[in-house]
Amino acid sequence: EEMISILEEGVDARDVLKDIALSGNQEDAFFVMDVGEIIKQYETWTKMLPRVKPFYAVKCNDSQVVLQIMAALGANFDCASKGEIDKVLDLGVTADRIIYANPAKMRSHISYAAKAGVDLLTFDSVSELHKIKEFHPNAKLVLRISADSYDSQCPAMSLKFGADPETEAYPLLKEAVAMGLNVIGISFHVGSGCREVEAFGRALAFTAGLFIRAQESLGLRMTVVDIGGGFQMNNFEKTCATINRALSDYFGDNLDLEFIAEPGRFMVASAYTLATQIHSLRINSNQTMFYINDGVYGSFNCLLFDHATVTPIPLKENYFGSQLTTCSVWGPTCDSLDLVSEACLLPSCLNIGDWILFESMGAYTIPTSTNFNGFAPPKIHHICDYNNWCRIKEHLPETVDNFTYQQTPYWKYQSKTYENSSSSFLLQPITTPH
Questions:
Q1: pLDDT of 429 over the 90 cut
Q2: How far apart are CA 161 and CA 225, in angstroms?
Q3: Which one of 101, 146, 373, 406 has the fewest CB atoms closer than 10 angstroms to its CB?
């Protein structure tokens, strides 16, 4: 059962990390997840992109608490399968808050979406149109076009999805109209972790051109623009400026249009810090090799699947007199592929039993962790400061009865722990300031 611990004033995630790690009872790796970080990121989004409704990308982190908090904040959801749709609907979220944004769907999943009332679907091929015509003829369709950036953490999305906006998009719109299907918009994805902000401007220019051509040549008046994902924290301000300028230039102040997006890592990455312990070490002629209790078959699968880079940070902050030395950091399994960091600088005095932290580990880590070699994924400790908890609770009065109060002496500064005992936790959207 997942729990959220409510912290007293003046206590933060770092305090919690230290207290758990240094308790003497902890040997396994663990996460600390700060609910307040998700709230902060969501409010940053609504302030910087006020015209764009976020549909949280469930694939990024499908933790129950994450989904509950996103639902409470008022986000909608981007789902890619029947399983993800089920997870969101089980929260009590209505089907009209979901986009089924997988352009290549299984027939049974399309049929399930129809029965569940999930009507907003993407497509990028004629064969997908025929499946939708057979299994969900009343769907509201969004055409996915290719729109790769020149520099993304996960580039070349168009290798798998997206119609060419110049040669394939219009014929697909024409075919959909001929089949009597209801196409209401265009979507694109510039690549996860996009570092080239101009990619959004190019994609919106193509989208605007297709809107005009479809209306003039087919009588098709579309109303939805889905700008996909790819949002990063370190260039978010520039990205927003580019998007807002393009929306104004290409679509003006048209109130009939709905702009949506599918952010994932932007919302959740910074909320998670992973704590790992050094359980073994080996010193050779070139470097020190540290072996920690999580690796690429666990939380660090992001190194392989998400092209991520990580920075090890010693939990102890003061290493007086200790020089930095070149080290490698390895995971716990018997596979030599299990390499977390090939060369990094760490204090030479680090030893077995010391802890190393990895920040911003909330995106594309937890959903793809395995139990390979018998190593279970790390436990997640969810925390929320008292002020943020009061904000959520005030907007969700009906959820109070869904929590059981208990004293938890494990963290000396932890005032209360609320245990989720109902699937109807955190459902009503919170109105956030723009």
A1: no
A2: 17
A3: 406
What is the rounded distance in angstroms from the CA atom of residue 298 to the CA atom of residue 306?
13
Please give the Cα distance from 424 to 429 (Å, whole number): 13
Would you tell me the crossing angle of helices 107-116 and 126-135 to the nearest 10 degrees? Answer: 50
Judge residue 44's burial from the number of C-beta atoms within 10 Å of its C-beta, 0-12 exposed, 13-18 middle, 19 or more buried.
Answer: middle
Longest CA pairwise span in the chain (Å): 75
Kindly state the helix (H) or strand (E) to which residue 304 belongs, with its residue range: helix 302-305
230 with 193: CB under 8 angstroms? Answer: yes
Is the pLDDT at 378 greater than 80, yes or no?
yes
pLDDT band of 158, cuts 50, 70, 90: low
Domain 36-267 carries which CATH code?
Answer: 3.20.20.10
* Alpha-carbon span 325 to 339, nearest angstrom: 18
78 has which bridge partners? Answer: 57, 99
Residue pair 246/204 in contact (Cβ under 8 Å)? The answer is: yes
Q: What does the alpha-carbon distance between residue 81 and residue 79 come to, in Å, rounded to a whole number?
A: 6
Contact assessment for residue 387 and residue 394, using Cβ atoms and an 8 Å cutoff: no
79-105 confidence digits (pLDDT tens): 999 999 999 999 999 999 999 999 999
Domain spanning 3-34+269-380: CATH superfamily: Lyase, Ornithine Decarboxylase; Chain A, domain 1 (2.40.37.10)
Q: How far apart are CA 41 and CA 270, in angstroms?
A: 9
Give residue 6's identity as a one-letter amino acid code.
Answer: I
334 as an active site residue: the answer is: yes
**Which one, of 187, 193, 133, lies nearest residue 165 by Cα?**
187
**Between the CA of residue 101 and those of 77, 112, 118, 246, 257, what are the distances in Å?**
10, 14, 11, 23, 19
Out of 154, 240, 327, 334, pick the active-site residue. Answer: 334
Cα–Cα distance, 60 to 57 (Å, whole number): 6
What does the pLDDT read at residue 318?
73
Q: Given a cut of 80, is residue 187 above it in pLDDT?
A: yes
Question: Domain extents for the chain?
Answer: 3-34+269-380, 36-267
Q: How far is CA 224 from the centre of its chain?
A: 22
